[in-house]
Amino acid sequence: VQLQASGGGLVQAGGSLRLSCAASGRTFSSYRMAWFRQAPGKEREFVAISWSGTSLYNTDSVKGRFTISRDNAKNTVYLQMNSLKPEDTAVYYCAADRSIIASYYRDPHKYGYWGRGTQVTVSS
Question: In this predicted structure, what is the pLDDT of residue 63?
Answer without folding.
Answer: 83
